Please model this.
Amino acid sequence: MRASDEERYTEYVTVRLPALRRIAYLLCGDSHRADDIVQNAITKLYVHWRKAQAADNLDAYVRAIVVRAFLTEQRTGWFSRTRVVDEPPDIPVRGPDIETSQVLHTALRRVPPRQRAVLVLRFLYDMPVEAVAHALKCSAGTVKSQTSLGLATLRKHLGDMNLLAER
Model:
């Protein structure tokens, strides 16, 4: 890679790294795995930097790489080698209602990975159906059905959590 390309790549990744970590964390629910996903994604981005620079929307292109890295990790089984700890890591949560945010993140982690990816892209990143379909390399109909299934699963888990909280 030419020095000028490498400099642009470094600048881009430096600025976007927090946003990339945020989407990876929302997808996997673990800060260490999020770092691994982002590392895989930015490595792929480095390899394909010339092609990426030519994309109409570089942020969407890179976001798609992160989502695909997450989905690939889910298929390969790395996620099954988790570490058991006494307490969950202390993760700062922004916003006025920390408890609701934590409940939502917990419920979101229980949604299957593909549905979770669709929900994160559609509702947290406010992407239209067609853009999500392009990012995930599937049809708009698949995105719509995964959205419906994902929301139903999320509602079920949120309902289960509310029942537990009432006890």
DSSP finds eight helices and no strands in the chain. Confidence is low (pLDDT under 50) at residues 163-167. The chain has two domains: 1-91, 97-167. Helices lie at 3-28, 31-47, 49-53, 58-76, 98-109, 113-124, 129-136, 140-166.
